[in-house]
Specification:
The complex is a heterodimer of chains A (64) and B (127).
Chain A: H1 2-25, H2 29-61
Chain B: H1 3-23, H2 25-61, H3 65-90, H4 94-111, H5 113-126
Helix pairs in contact in B: 1-2, 2-3, 3-4
Classes of the chains: A mainly alpha (64), B mainly alpha (127).
């Protein structure tokens, strides 16, 4: 399960990079910026869930 | 989750981070955080048995429980602070990393004040 998330992040990153280049070449810088931002938000949403899970485990473990 | 899987996982993760660094550095950082979290999640569950053992030991020796709880808190905080500051350093932001470490130290010192006070009280009783 964990490794898939890492592959997903890598895939989205490369996809957004390619999209960015294509859009920039096509002369649409704003759309390129938008795709990069949306890709970033998607990836961040996925990682935030994992971060909260880690912090909860640490909290319960060390009864912080 | 034995150690070989963790090592394989970390190689794959570093490969992905390096790959992403050329195209989109911000995704590389997110991949770094995700990899760090997974490796921590793999091993953190093993710690609980150690903590249970330590708890039994403190009960046997008769040290009062409150110090043990504080010690546990301090190790937990140190653990997370080190995790966060290393990730900030990898991303190239050593200033933020040192701020996180400073904050961690301050929290640990404030947490350990009761221990100091009891130490001083026992010392004064002896003298």
């Amino acid at each position: 399960m964990e490794i898939d998330l890492l592959f997903k992040i890598a895939a989205i990153g490369i996809l957004v990079a390619v999209l960015h280049q294509v859009l920039v070449r096509a002369g649409r810088e704003e759309q390129a910026m938008m795709t990069t931002l949306t890709g970033l938000v998607i990836v961040l949403a996925m990682v935030v869930r994992e971060i909260s899970e880690l912090f909860n485990t640490v909290k319960t473990l060390f009864n912080l | 989750m034995d150690i070989t899987q963790i090592i394989a996982f970390s190689f794959i993760a570093t490969f992905i981070v390096i790959l992403l660094k050329q195209y989109k550095p911000e995704y590389a950082m997110i991949a770094m955080i995700a990899a760090g979290i997974f490796i921590l999640l793999f091993v953190i569950n093993k710690l609980s048995s150690v903590i249970v053992l330590l708890e039994e030991l403190t009960d046997k020796i008769g040290i009062n429980k409150e110090f043990f709880v504080i010690l546990l808190k301090i190790t937990g905080i140190a653990y997370i602070v080190e995790f966060a500051s290393n990730i900030c350093k990898d991303a190239g932001e050593s200033a933020i990393a040192s701020k996180v470490e400073l904050a961690g130290k301050i929290v640990i010192v404030t947490l350990s004040i009761p221990i100091f006070s009891t130490l001083i009280r026992t010392m004064s009783e002896i003298i």
